[in-house]
Design goal:
Helices cover 52% and strands 16% of the residues. The two termini are 44 Å apart. The radius of gyration is 22 Å and the shape is globular. It is α/β, with parallel strands linked by helices and 294 residues long. A hairpin with a 2-residue loop joins strand 2 and strand 3. The protein folds into 2 domains: 185 residues, no CATH class; 96 residues, no CATH class.
């Protein structure tokens, strides 16, 4: 039986951000706590590739105003290496904005916002703001022109009453608060869900993505279990149980982890069919690993 999409699910989030720039601006203002100029352009699932042959990234919502650039992401499950992911997103955004011959001063102010359903840093905070400072002197201003914010919707109750608490509560629970933003978001979500063909297609994509993640988790678990079992058996036979177990487990786990990361990387780039094939075709998997490592 079909169901409605939630605001936190990426097809819905991307659609609302792209089709409703007014709501996109209000979400950004709430997330950052600063005024945001009128949104000129929103591109959902914008793909950036800093150079030919390099690793591409797919941004949920690429947002331009008259004086700044924003990337706002909705993340419904935990991923390793969020900090380096944001670093690469930032570099890709900067490379896309700096034209040949332009000076670095022409780079716009930029912001990356991750709205997460889980606590990526395990500190229990609802908001994590990252900026560059001088370790030796707090009075030194680098003027780098970017800021990163990670929101943890699971800790919405820690925030005082206000727009940000309402937004994170809505992301986490779909409950509409007393503020106008969440009511308007809920109305936009309801309207989008009335587009039955789009909704069904989006649900298929979500199911495929979840299947790929589940398969990756199973392969990782299976690899570790097989590595431990094989290592113990060989170790007993040769009198080196501990060393063999650790060696086999490490090798199997490394291979399984590599596959899981490959699948995640392909899904981030929107290459769902490649991800599906990589899960079962070892030769094709090696081709993809060589492609992405080059």
């Amino acid at each position: 039986m079909s169901r409605n999409l939630l605001f936190s699910e990426y097809p819905m989030f991307d659609r609302i951000m792209e089709e409703r720039p007014d709501l996109c601006r209000r979400v950004l203002e709430t997330a950052l706590g600063v005024p945001v100029d009128e949104v000129r352009n929103v591109v959902a699932e914008r793909t950036l590739q800093p150079r030919v042959g390099s690793h591409g990234v797919r941004l949920d919502a690429w947002v331009r105003t008259s004086d700044a650039l924003y990337d706002v992401e909705m993340q419904t499950y935990s991923r390793e290496g969020l900090g380096r992911r944001m670093r690469y997103y930032q570099s890709a955004m900067d490379t896309a904005m700096l034209r040949p011959g332009a000076t670095y001063d022409s780079l716009p102010e930029s912001f990356i916002v991750f709205i997460c359903l889980h606590d990526e840093f395990k500190e229990g905070l609802p908001v994590y703001t990252f900026d560059m400072i001088c370790d030796e002197s707090g009075s030194v201003v680098l003027g780098h022109g970017f800021k990163w914010v990670v929101l943890n919707a699971s800790a919405w109750e820690m925030l005082p009453d206000g727009p940000l608490r309402g937004l994170l509560r809505y992301v986490a629970t779909e409950e509409v608060g007393g503020d106008g933003l969440t009511a308007d978001l809920a109305a936009a979500v309801e309207a989008a869900n009335e587009d039955a063909p789009w909704r069904e297609e989006s649900l298929v994509m979500l199911t495929l993505e979840e299947d790929m993640r589940a398969q990756g988790r199973l392969l990782q678990k299976k690899g570790r279990e097989e590595g431990l079992a094989e290592g113990r058996a060989e170790g007993r036979a040769e009198g080196r149980a501990e060393g063999r177990a650790e060696g086999r487990a490490a090798g199997r786990a490394e291979g399984a982890d590599q596959l899981g990361k490959l699948i995640a990387q392909l899904m981030d780039a929107g290459r769902f069919e490649d991800a599906r094939r990589a899960a079962t075709d070892a030769e094709y998997r090696e081709e993809l690993l060589e492609e992405l490592d080059s």
